[in-house]
Each structure stands twice: as C-alpha cells, then as structure tokens.
Amino acid sequence: MKCGALFLLLAFAAIVNARVPVGSADPEGDLWVVLVAGSYTWFNYRHQADVCHAYQIVHSHGVPDDHIIVMMYDDLATSKQNPTPGQVINRPNGPDVYKGVPKDYIGMDVTPENFLKVLSGDAAGLEGVGSGKVVKSGPNDRVFVNLVDHGAPGIFAFPHTFMHAKDFSSTILQMKKDNKFKEMYVYMEACESGSMFQNNFPDDIGFYALSASNATESSYACYMDTKRGTFLGDVFSIKWMEDSDREQLTKETLLEQFNIVQKSTTTSHVEQWGELSLDSNTVSTILGSKTPEGVVDPVIPSHDPCLNSSVSSPDVPVAILQSNIDNAANAGEAQMWQKQLIKLHENRNLVNSITKKLAIEVTGDGEMAQEMTTDKHHVITQWDCYEQAADAYNENCFNLGENPYALRAVHTLVNLCEHGHTASDIIAATEKVCTHPHITEIH
Ligand SMILES: *[C@@H]1O[C@H](CO)[C@@H](O)[C@H](O)[C@H]1NC(C)=O
Ligand SMILES: *[C@@H]1O[C@H](CO)[C@@H](O)[C@H](O)[C@H]1NC(C)=O
C-alpha cells in the first residue's frame, strides 16, 4: 500500500472512531449482560446453577467481566449439602459452572431495587453496595438480561422480596427515553413469566424477550440429581443454554434458537414478546461473538435426560424430599426427610387455608371465595389494586421471596381485584386474617 493511501485510511479510521460514543469499543455499540438468580436455599439450586452457566456462555464468547453483572445469593458452593464444595453443576456429570463467576451482588444485596439500579446505570445509587458495577450503556448499545427464579402473575421473586411487573417494565421504558439502549433482550425463567411482559411492552422500542412459560402456567425444573438431592436446571434455561453451547452463535438467529427452544420445551409454552423482527439477529448479538476456546462440550443425547426428569416448579420440593426418602442411607435419615415432607404439607396447608379465609373475608361468600382461590386464568388489568394487594399479602401474610409456595396463592388476589374488590378491602382483610407468627421457607 502507498503511503498516501495508508494516510487516508488512517484519517478515515480516526473520523469513524471519533463518532463512537465514549465507553464504546466499536460503532456497533457494546454488549452488556445482566444475570440474576432470585432465589436461595438448596431446594432452589437450579436457579443459581442456570445463571452460572449463562455466565460461562457469555464469558467464553468474549464478553468481558466489566460488561457482565451477576446477582446471585451465592449460598450453594459453601452449603453443607454440597457434596462437591466450591462447585456448582448445571447437568448430571456436567462441568463446574461456578468457577470464575463474578460476585457482583450476593446475599442481601440481591434485591429488585438493586437490580433495577444496575440495569438503568444508577452507579450513585449503588455506591458501597457489592461491586458497585452497573450497566453503563448508551444509545448504540445492546443489553442482554437473563432472570431466573420463582414467579407468579405479575411478580418475579427475589430472595427476601419480589419485583412487580410494572416496576420492571417502567424502568426499561424510562431507559429507552433516556437513550440507554439500542436493543434490549430478556430471557426469563419463572412460573407465569409471560405475565411480566403481556401488555407491558410496546413492539417498536428495540425490546425483545422470551419467557419460559405463558402468563398462567408453571415453568419446569429438570435434571434431578439424587446425589445432590436437588434439581440441577430448569427446562427452558437448559434448552436455550445447551443450544447455545452447541451452535455457532454468529450463524444461528434468535428466531432459530426460539424455534428450537420452544419445540424442545414440551413442559410449558415458551413465548416471544416485544419487537419480534429483532429475532432475525444472530444469537451472538446477545451472547457475544467470539468463538470459544477449547471444547465446548455439547451434550446431544439420544433420549433427553432433562425432559425425562422434568417436574413443575411447585412440585419440585415434594419431588426432592421424596427422592431423599427413597435414596436415604438408613432408616433414621429416611425418617428425617419424611418429617420434613410432612412439615412441608402442613405449611402449604396453612398458606391455602389463610388465603381462603382472606377470600371469604373480602367476598363475604364461601362459594365465591372458592372460585377466587381456584380460577387461575385471569389476565391482570387492575394493576394498581393487585400491586397493593400483593404488597399487603407479602407484608402481613407470607413474605413472597422467603416463601416460594405463597406465590402459588397470589392469583387469588388477582381474581379479587379483577372482580371489582378494592385494594383497601383486601389490605384490611390481610390485617384481620393474617395473625399467625412470621414464617419463612414454605417451599
Ligand atoms: C397457557 O398454558 C396453559 C397450561 O399449559 C394452557 O392451558 C393455556 O391455554 C395457555 N394459555 C395461552 C394463552 O397460551
Ligand atoms: C432419563 O434418562 C437417563 C439417561 O440419560 C436415564 O438414566 C434415566 O433412567 C431416565 N429417567 C427416566 C425417568 O426415564
């Protein structure tokens, strides 16, 4: 090349470079990744295992740690129930996915408030909290968010509290107004996860999401591990991540991935939301475009060991305790698990009976109350009433983060609101009916 031509090229490169926003490595914009597991305890192993695996995927595809923010309780590696201390796996005999995962926000710092601050780039609001890392995205950037936990209509749970659908969507809509992303992609694993997106996001703001389940059904766990006594993954999460491990991400489109995941997640309805034309982008758009080094170890089983051990999320604790009973080393151990199983059913009955009482208190009618507690098919339209009712139920009756089973009862609040009962009537009823002592860990 002649010197003149080289000079011109350099000058041109400088001009192009000058137009790149500060903090952005290329004119295509940066990729930011936020990974959140919202649960804790051994029963919920699978959620943090999924998120650790997601980290390994984006890490191996070249997304640097300063562009990845991880929130997880981090109680698995050191749990006394962990037969392989310091390690977490996401499929039977699979590799350790815990190694190298940044501990940006752990324990009590895993909250919806902190998550929304991380997402919207509120560094000042997180000063002195965890690593303080936030998404510093600009108008050219892409953001990928993977959330994994328990859910309920309009609710995504966190270890000691929960996030309302409207707080989630309004934060993202505000980010759009503030020019904080070109495109945002969300993959969410939770029961009723469709309800977090339904009617909450426009289809023209560069927002695209997949939910593990529709608005009114459970999501499913899989890979029961009898040695660890817990499930290692969730079906939707396993399906999109094992597909990502297998495919060349710069070639596969998001639509192709959606089709594979939807078809292979036979346990629930995986759904797409938002601006669907974004699915013509490649998967590398959201997970990174570098070719991973070393062997990615693709499991392509002839029969599907995830699906053949899948269990709906609410049934997971019972399945775990039953497996522990069946696999106990001796009669004493079996008896211990048996006791826990009995206690679990007692606690679940408490949630059901108190919620029923609440419905009777509000409706003044036993038959109506029965309908309110059994019908699960309402689309939420009375958001204000439902948010206030859920807050009161969380405050006065059962903490929805600490008692995953109570999430199975909040559709009753949806129904009461949709049938014209007011938030103040429901709040008053929670104060009257929920007089039991504070209780946690109703799984
Ligand atoms: C959601 O899933 C449930 C359970 O699988 C099903 O009965 C229902 O028809 C589905 N609803 C929609 C809107 O797809
Ligand atoms: C599921 O598949 C695995 C092999 O991957 C097999 O060992 C196991 O027995 C199967 N479980 C069931 C319940 O079919």
UniProtKB/TrEMBL annotation:
GO terms for cellular component: vacuole. GO terms for molecular function: cysteine-type endopeptidase activity. GO terms for biological process: proteolysis involved in protein catabolic process; vacuolar protein processing. It catalyses: Hydrolysis of proteins and small molecule substrates at -Asn-|-Xaa- bonds. InterPro entries: Legum_prodom (IPR048501), Legumain_prodom_sf (IPR046427), Peptidase_C13 (IPR001096). Residues 1-18 form the signal peptide. Keywords: Hydrolase, Protease, Signal, Thiol protease. It comes from the Eukaryota. CDD domains: legumain_C. Its EC number is 3.4.22.34. The active site is at H150, C191. Residues 340-434 form the Legumain prodomain domain. It is an enzyme of class 3 (hydrolase). Belongs to the peptidase C13 family. PANTHER family: HEMOGLOBINASE FAMILY MEMBER (PTHR12000), LEGUMAIN (PTHR12000:SF42). This is legumain. It comes from Halocaridina rubra (Hawaiian red shrimp).
